[in-house]
Amino acid sequence: MKKVLIINSSARITNSQSRAMTALFQENWQRLYPTDHFIFRDLGINPIPHIDDAWIKASFTKVSDRNAENQAPLALSNKLVRELKEADIIVFGLPMYNWGVPSGVKSYMDQIMRINETWKFESGEPDGNYVGLLSGKKAYILSARGDNGYGCGERNEHMNFQSKYVETIFRIIGIGEIETISLDSEEYGGELFQKGKERITAMIKAIK
C-alpha cells in the first residue's frame, strides 16, 4: 500500500481547474489502487503561515542546543515535512497567479525547505551542491494557466515562474521523478480550452 499526498493550492473553492485535475487524479488512482491511502493538504482553504524570526532562529539552532521551547515554532513545519517523508506519491494542484505560484505555495515551500531535514550541502558546509534527502518518491504537478505558451521552448517559457519553481524545489529536496501536466488557455475558453481539457483528462487517466 502506498501513501498519496494530494496538495491543493487554488484560492478558488469552485470553478478551480487545478482542483478538478487533482480530483480526477484521485478518482483514477483509487480505481487502479483501491488499497492506497490518501493524505490531503489544502493551502488555499487552510493557508500556511509565513516563516518569521522565531522560525528562523529555531530552524538554525544547533541540535545540541535544541529543547521543547526553542523548537516550538517548528511544530507545523515538522508536520509538513513528515507528510512529505511518509508519502510515496505527491500530487500538487497548482494554478498560475501572475506568472508565479499562489502566495500560500511560497509559504509552504519555505516551511519544508529544512536544511538537514529535506536537503543538505554535500560537504556539510555551504558549497553550492545540494543533496536531497527525500528520495524514492514521484511527484505529479497538475498546473492550470489562463494563457498558453509556457512550456519548454515556447514563447512564454521565460515567464513560467510557476511549475518550474515547484519542480526546482522538489528536485533540490530529492524528488527526481516529476511529471508536469499543464492545462492552458482557460481565459480563452471555447473550443481551444475544451480541446485542452480533453487532452489533459486523457493524460491523467493514462497515469498508472
Automatic annotation (TrEMBL):
<comment type="function">
    <text>Quinone reductase that provides resistance to thiol-specific stress caused by electrophilic quinones.</text>
</comment>
<comment type="function">
    <text>Also exhibits azoreductase activity. Catalyzes the reductive cleavage of the azo bond in aromatic azo compounds to the corresponding amines.</text>
</comment>
<comment type="subunit">
    <text>Homodimer.</text>
</comment>
<dbReference type="GO" id="GO:0016652">
    <property type="term" value="F:oxidoreductase activity, acting on NAD(P)H as acceptor"/>
</dbReference>
<keyword id="KW-0285">Flavoprotein</keyword>
<dbReference type="GO" id="GO:0010181">
    <property type="term" value="F:FMN binding"/>
</dbReference>
<protein>
    <recommendedName>
        <fullName>FMN dependent NADH:quinone oxidoreductase</fullName>
        <ecNumber>1.6.5.-</ecNumber>
        <ecNumber>1.7.1.17</ecNumber>
    </recommendedName>
</protein>
<dbReference type="InterPro" id="IPR003680">
    <property type="entry name" value="Flavodoxin_fold"/>
</dbReference>
<keyword id="KW-0560">Oxidoreductase</keyword>
<dbReference type="GO" id="GO:0016655">
    <property type="term" value="F:oxidoreductase activity, acting on NAD(P)H, quinone or similar compound as acceptor"/>
</dbReference>
<dbReference type="Pfam" id="PF02525">
    <property type="entry name" value="Flavodoxin_2"/>
</dbReference>
<feature type="binding site">
    <location>
        <begin position="16"/>
        <end position="18"/>
    </location>
    <ligand>
        <name>FMN</name>
    </ligand>
</feature>
<dbReference type="InterPro" id="IPR023048">
    <property type="entry name" value="NADH:quinone_OxRdtase_FMN_depd"/>
</dbReference>
<feature type="domain" description="Flavodoxin-like fold">
    <location>
        <begin position="2"/>
        <end position="185"/>
    </location>
</feature>
<keyword id="KW-0520">NAD</keyword>
<dbReference type="InterPro" id="IPR050104">
    <property type="entry name" value="FMN-dep_NADH:Q_OxRdtase_AzoR1"/>
</dbReference>
<feature type="binding site">
    <location>
        <position position="10"/>
    </location>
    <ligand>
        <name>FMN</name>
    </ligand>
</feature>
<keyword id="KW-0288">FMN</keyword>
<comment type="similarity">
    <text>Belongs to the azoreductase type 1 family.</text>
</comment>
<dbReference type="GO" id="GO:0009055">
    <property type="term" value="F:electron transfer activity"/>
</dbReference>
<dbReference type="InterPro" id="IPR029039">
    <property type="entry name" value="Flavoprotein-like_sf"/>
</dbReference>
